[in-house]
Specification:
Elements (H helix, E strand, L loop, with lengths): L1 H36 L1 E3 L5 E4 L3 H7 L4 H30 L6 H13 L2 H11 L6 H8 L13 H28 L4 H9 L4 H29 L3 H6 L11 H10 L4 H32 L1
Antiparallel strand pairs: 1-2
Helix pairs in contact: 1-12, 2-12, 3-7, 3-9, 4-7, 5-7, 7-9, 9-12, 11-12
Length: about 290
Amino acid sequence: MREKKRWNLMPYVWLLPSIALISVFVVFPIAIVFKLSFSEISKAGVVGEFIGLRNYTEAVNLPAFKTVMANTFWWVISVVGLSTLFGFAIALVLNEKFAGRKIARSILIFPWATSLVIQASVWNYIIKYEYGSLNSVLLNLGIIREAINWRSTYQIEFVWECACGIFVTVPFVAFCVLSGLQSIDRSLYESATVDGAGFLSKLIHITLPLVRPALSVSTVLNIIYVFNSFPIIFTMTKGAPANKTDTMITFLYMLSFYDRKKGPAIALSVIGFLILCLCAGIYMVTVMRKEDAA
């Protein structure tokens, strides 16, 4: 009996180092942030007494809060949605055999492997009014007669930020989907072809169901990465004008380090964390139900 009990405990013993690391570097910091969100914090960062939900109410009542939340919603939806669509299409192309496929795959990884600050700086240069390369190319091709101000309104600037986010996210989705596509047995497509199935039928009945796990992983990770994305927006606009192009991450950064409102900034970070947990949980439960039903 003792040997049996000792053997049953062995898996937990082997898991102890991982549990310890997760506790120290993940659970403990999260617990501290939650505690700080209910505490008074001075501009110098000194933690004071317990004040309940005051930091949360102050954060929610900030004039820019609704705008920032709306921007965050559209930022995540547009970047995750369109990058998933484009990445899936590109993965389908790269899964086929053609001359230069290895080169194409190598080129595709560059936007994702390059620093986001560099990517955002390049996009800033492209859409410059005075000497931007976009205006220069269009003028030289005779498509336009005079330079266009591609950043005339904050709405257009936010669209450019989303475009940059999509551009750097597509490679990640493409390679996640590509890994799923390469695990599909080619004989399934051959059998479907013999039965007279076309491209669309194969896509719906073979490709999508079998590549769903890879899509699930890429989507959940994308939601987390995009929601927490800081460099693109901060490099391109810094949230200007008047927080009109801010998302929650850049807004709470400015709130903490520029406005010195550390309490509301920490409360916003907790709100963001809970939103991410909720979104990831809903998505995973939905996907798991579909897989169980299948």
